[in-house]
Each structure stands twice: as structure tokens, then as C-alpha cells.
Amino acid sequence: MAYLSIHDDGPVRVIRIARDERLNALNLALVDELVAALEAADTETQVRAIVVTGGDKAFAAGADIAEMADATAVDMKLRDQFRAWDRIRGVHKPVIAAVRGFALGGGCELALACDLVIASESAKFGQPEVKLGLMPGAGGTQWLARRLGKARALELLWLGEPITAQEAMALGLVNRVVPDEACVAEAVELGKRLAEMPPVALRCIKEAVYQAMDTALADGLEAERNLFYLLFATEDAREGMRAFMERRTPAFRGR
Ligand code: HXC
Question: Which among 178, 198, 203, 173 has a CA at the least distance from the CA of 188?
Fold first, then answer.
């Protein structure tokens, strides 16, 4: 386990993303590890709920920009990184995100992909991909449009500005906001309450609720990722990601 630290608290599996020096930027290997850990927890009968968390400063600051900065649209298509993300939706047990600090880009999408979200007061949620000349690729446009409606989703996605935990709470993206130091404990506590419930009923309820949200989510995700790959053909995406790494303001030119 290069990027995760994992322990059990009674029936609750706690998976912590521990790439703190890069604010838990989600490189391909990290996401593979995370998804494998989720699937392992899903098959172990003594585990009844799963908590996914990050560090104090960042739940996850998004996809690893360094890993994408020089990639072409074809590289991205061949990388097929979202195949791993799709497997998150296949996890049957309750998955609770305990979000402290930044949940940006892919980090926000990871939180949205979890079933429940406990946010600390310091949490910041956002989809800043537009500032890199990109757009979300791991479900952000689909989840936000479904959950917030068109206007609020577009504002978040177009401006790329983060929102606070309280704002995310008001929008219905998180279940509760708690003090920073209580965040993981609160998520584990919720996991323990769920662990007392009948697992098969929980599983069927999850399946039904996702079906209710999923008129054609798979189609939407497919469309989103093709658009995401397409943006790697733009100069603006190159400029946006390079500017981030060079710590300067990007100059976008519309091509
Ligand atoms: C690679 C990252 C990173 C990222 C931070 N780092 N986020 N590296 N990819 N997404 C690195 C920085 O380069 C830096 O490395 C170190 O982590 C600490 O970050 P700082 O920027 O110095 O911290 P701070 O000034 O506190 O700013 C925090 C921040 C900022 C506001 C969260 O790091 C930021 O804006 N990050 C990028 C957020 C983003 O655009 N995410 C979307 C990515 S695209 P060094 O070596 O300098 O110390 C995306 C597409 C989704 O997610 C596709 C699906 C997966």
C-alpha cells in the first residue's frame, strides 16, 4: 500500500488516502489502490461499512495534474483511467466520505461518489478543472446536474470556485458538518450505526436509490469522459496545467 493507510474500527473499515505531500492528488496508481481496497472491504463479511478519508489539509486536491500535463487526447483515451472509477459504483456496502480540507476536482467527485458525506468545518468542495482549461471527467457534471439542478451546477462548474462545508450542506451535497477533529470519528460512528442494520436490506436500498437517480447515468458519464479527453487537444488545457505547475496565472486563448 503505497498511498493508503487502512485500519478497522469494529465493523467499520477506515481507508485513509495518505499522499499528504501532494495534497492527496489522485494519480492512477492511487486510484487503483483505493478501488481495490474498496472492493476488498466489500467482500469481507466482518466489514459492514466503509469510511474513506484523507488528511487534515486535503481529502484530495483532484487528479494528479503532473501526470496529465503532457498527455494528449489519445494518451488519455488509451489510459482509460475512469474504468477504475466506474468500479466505485459497484461497491455494495455503505461508503461514507469523511472530508477535511480540500475536496477539489476528482477529490470532489470522489466525495460525491460516496454514499454519505461527513464534512469538517474546514472542508472546501469545488470543481476547478475549468481553470486548467479542462472540465470534470469523473462524474462531476453528471452528479452535480442531477443533485443541484442545471443553474447551480453550471455556476460551480463554470467559475470553478470552491464552496464551504456549510454551503455544500445547504445544497444537499453533505449529510452533516462537524468540527475538524470530530470528522473521522463521526463518520465511523455513523458507520457503526449502519453496521447494526440488516446488510442485505442496506444493499437493496442502495441499489434502488441509485437506480432512482440513474435515468441514464452511464450514458452521461461516457459523454462526459469523451469531452474530457477532447479538451486534451486544446492549447488552453496545456497552458492551464503548465501554469499551475509553474505557479503562474494562465493565459487562455480559446483554442
Ligand atoms: C498535482 C498537486 C495537486 C494536483 C496540489 N498539488 N494539488 N499536484 N496535482 N491536483 C501539489 C502542489 O503542486 C504542491 O507541490 C503540493 O501539492 C502542495 O500544494 P500547494 O499548491 O503548494 O498548496 P496550497 O498553496 O495550499 O494550495 C492548495 C490548492 C492547490 C488550492 C488545493 O494545490 C490547487 O489549486 N491544487 C489543484 C486543484 C485542482 O485544480 N484540481 C483539479 C485537478 S484536475 P510542490 O511540489 O510544489 O510542493 C481533475 C480532473 C478530474 O481533478 C479527472 C478525474 C480524475
Answer: 178
Q: Grid coordinates standing for 225?
A: 469522459
Read off the pLDDT of residues 35-66 as tens digits, 9 standing for 90 and up.
999 999 999 999 999 999 999 999 999 999 99
Substitution site in 26, 27, 65 for ligand 1 pocket (most atoms within 8 Å of beta carbon)? 65
Please give the torsion angle defined by the CA atoms of residues 241, 244, 245 and 247, in that order, rounded to the nearest 10 degrees: 150
Catalytic residue ranges? 63, 106, 109, 129
CA dist., res. 208 & res. 153, Å (int)? 24
Pocket perturbation via mutation, ligand 1, pick of 19, 22, 30, 143 by most ligand atoms within 8 A of CB: 22
